[in-house]
Write a structure and sequence with these properties.
Helix 23 links the parallel strand 9 and strand 10. Helix 2 runs antiparallel to helix 8, helix 4 crosses helix 18 and helix 8 packs across helix 19. The protein is 59% helix and 7% strand.
Length: 695
């Protein structure tokens, strides 16, 4: 039989050719590919961050003047905060290049509890990144094609599954696939901003958004309520801070960069920051200049002669309205912009598909998550982590029906928690490094200033986000985070308990005294005799055949058949008055060990190997139950002896046809299969044995 495992053609078509561990170095990324992989989330945030900011500020007025006038101030604070965070993470990359990011910073400097808080927050944030990005991308796609609105949830689910499949093909291959849409989005937005500036200042044209001629029905006049004004501004700032999400991904993905890893990661971080800030400022500027009105419910909250723009379908996104104002409705550039925006919003989830598995692998390495998350798949990616992320994101999409407004309330809280704790941890890092002399005073001083400002600002944002979004749905983050924290904590304690339990003793004694084998037989047939043949070939000190007499008449008939067949192996009949099979056998084995001390007992069980899934209904139930019970009996080892039925011979899961290119690549292919006569398969050798002494 060939030992090459058959691979389903569908799996190989989706994932591609297996990669050996030796090719891991070849999967490392250059800066040009790392940028779209790790920066798609923060770059895409500029597509909905300004939108959420404008939506909040449009709802209030002070002295009859819309609170939109505060937009430049809030946008400036967001840009300043983004700049500080980028500078901070450049320090994190240099200090902790292993890929743990904020988790490693907290673990090293603040202890286990802080590290688990960061881990819980980041895991939730990665899930929300996928959910929000996919929902927002779907939203933008529907803006261009309103007829797709009834299938919003189905489209979102399809995109998540597509991203999972692409990422399972490997980091490098997915990077090349996602590079084009990411760079297309950057180019289309920059072209839109450049065209807008040219038309506005060079040509002197008046650019007007489709919603500019509508009046907004203001919910609150805030001149007499300064507290409400402050709350509204803080809420807008919290929503606009969504543009900062995903910045930490590069710090978590340093191991994926080519050498020199730290330098390349820092350069990529700088590129990402400059690009994101440019696009964020440009979109906010033109949104105000063109008079964009973006309301959660345009049909109810806008006033005008014709509200067909909002009643006929979902409201156009801010990006879409700017595209209409600058490029013209129905123009080629408008559709390119919409497709590129939808693509980058969808691909923003790719940041999470890279960050989540890396983080879970670090957690698994430290014993806070199942060890299965350390396993690399066929394409050298942490496939189990990707599958876990996919399931969690699908759950969020289904529960919230792919609504951006509902999902974004859960989004920013996690990432700013990790930001704040990580910055505090870096302050400890500089203090410790300065104390032991491993860091220069100049470097420590600059690091303290940057991380101190970063910790203060992100901490303030965290409080603001918590206060403004708690009742909007952010409370759910706490509901999820607390159990997640406890699960990781208890997982680590469990692993430590098991590690202590299986630790080698100071003095270890090898070797069991005695070797006793048991072959269970219910009737005489080929599978039963093959199990006996295996037991004989192992040359045990003592060997017995045991029949559990569930049916006395059948036991008597079996005893007679055994005698007639003339097999020179002792047969023992175990009475079972209550028709049980496992209990009498276990009682017999335990009694045997009491009388013979530390004797090793081997139990041989035949097992049918079938070729069809439905055949499992008819076979092996007793053997499986008995095996499970015997594994709890001390000193007992269970050996399953396979007997392949004809269906298993016809369908061999370990043989495969050669795939295209196998011969060219020098890979092994299936040899010519030898055909045997039906009577020749699974032959039982002639049994010869000398009677062993009876007990």
């Amino acid at each position: 039989m060939n030992d090459i495992q058959k691979e389903p053609r569908t799996k190989r078509l989706i994932l591609g050719k297996k990669l050996s561990t030796a090719k891991l170095e070849g999967e490392l990324l250059p800066k040009t590919i790392a940028l779209p992989i790790f920066s798609s989330d923060p770059l895409s945030s500029v597509a909905y961050g300004p939108q959420e900011l404008l939506m909040i500020l449009t709802l209030g007025a002070v002295g009859g003047v819309s609170t939109l006038s505060f937009t430049p101030i809030i946008a400036s604070v967001v840009v300043m905060l983004l700049s500080i965070i980028i500078l901070s993470y450049r320090k994190v990359i240099k200090a902790y290049p292993s890929g743990g990011g904020d988790y490693e910073v907290a673990q090293t400097n603040l202890g286990e509890k802080a590290a688990l808080i960061v881990a819980s927050a980041l895991l939730i944030d990665y899930v929300m990144t996928v959910a929000v990005s996919i929902a927002s991308g779907t939203d933008n796609l529907i803006s261009a094609f309103p007829a797709l609105d009834p299938w919003r949830v189905e489209i979102a689910v399809g995109f998540i599954l597509f991203l999972m499949a692409i990422n399972l093909r490997g980091v490098r291959e997915s990077g090349f696939a996602f590079a084009v849409p990411t760079y297309l989005f950057i180019a289309s937005v920059l072209v839109m901003l450049g065209t807008g500036l040219y038309r506005m200042f060079a040509l002197g044209e008046d650019l007007t958004a489709p919603s500019a001629h509508y009046a907004v029905h203001v919910e609150k006049q805030l001149e007499a309520a300064p507290f409400l004004l402050l709350f509204l501004l803080l809420r807008a700032f919290a929503s606009g801070s969504a543009a900062l999400t995903g910045v930490e991904a590069i710090a978590n993905g340093v191991p994926a960069f080519r050498t020199p890893k730290v330098k390349n990661a820092q350069i990529t971080m700088t590129w990402m920051g400059i690009t994101a800030i440019t696009m964020f400022v440009g979109i906010v500027f033109f949104a105000l200049a063109t008079g964009v009105q973006y309301i959660e419910n345009g049909a109810l909250q806008l006033k005008g002669e014709d509200l067909a723009l909002f009643s006929s379908g979902p409201q156009q996104s801010v990006i879409a309205q700017l595209g209409v104002a600058i490029f013209g409705n129905g123009s080629i550039m408008f559709f390119i912009l919409q497709v590129a925006t939808a693509a980058i919003l969808l691909l923003a989830a790719n940041t999470a598909f890279n960050g989540f598995p890396l983080l879970t692998s670090v957690l698994a390495k430290d014993g806070y998550a199942p060890k299965a998350l350390l396993t690399r798949g066929d394409r050298l990616v942490y496939s189990n982590g990707m599958l876990s992320l996919t399931l969690a994101a699908l759950g969020m999409i289904l529960v919230f029906q792919a609504s951006v407004t509902a999902l974004i309330q859960l989004y920013v809280l996690g990432v700013f928690t990790s930001f704040t704790v990580g910055q505090i941890g870096m302050l400890r890092h500089w203090k410790r490094g300065l104390k032991d002399g491993s860091i220069s005073k100049r470097e420590a001083t600059s690091g303290r200033i940057i991380n101190g400002i970063g910790a203060t600002m992100t901490g303030v944002v965290l409080v603001i986000v918590t206060l403004t979004k708690f009742l909007e749905g952010a409370w759910l983050v706490f509901v999820i985070a607390i159990p997640l924290y406890l699960v990781m904590y208890q997982t680590n304690r469990y692993y430590k308990t098991i590690e202590a339990e299986i630790l080698l003793d100071e003095h270890t004694e090898f070797g069991s005294k005695g070797d006793y084998a048991v072959v269970l037989m219910d009737k005489l047939n080929k599978p039963q005799l093959k199990a006996l043949d295996y037991a004989l070939s192992s040359k045990h000190d003592r060997l017995d055949v045991i029949h559990v007499a569930v049916d006395p008449d059948r036991a008597e008939a079996f005893q007679k058949e055994w005698k007639d067949y003339g097999i020179k192996v002792p047969l023992k009949i175990i009475e079972s008055p209550y028709r049980e099979f496992s209990a009498p056998l276990i009682e017999y084995l335990e009694d045997h060990r009491k009388r013979h001390g530390r004797e090793r007992i081997s139990v041989y069980l035949p097992k049918y190997i079938v070729g069809h899934w439905w055949e499992h209904i008819f076979h092996n139930h007793r053997a499986n139950r008995l095996r499970s019970r015997l594994l709890y009996v001390r000193g007992v080892m269970v050996t399953l002896v396979p007997w392949r039925l004809m269906s298993a011979e016809e369908f061999n899961p370990f043989l495969r046809n050669p795939l295209p290119g196998d011969v060219r690549r020098g890979e092994m292919v299936r040899p010519v299969e030898r055909r045997h006569h039906k009577l020749a398969r699974n032959r039982v050798h002639v049994i010869t044995a000398v009677n062993s002494d009876d007990e």
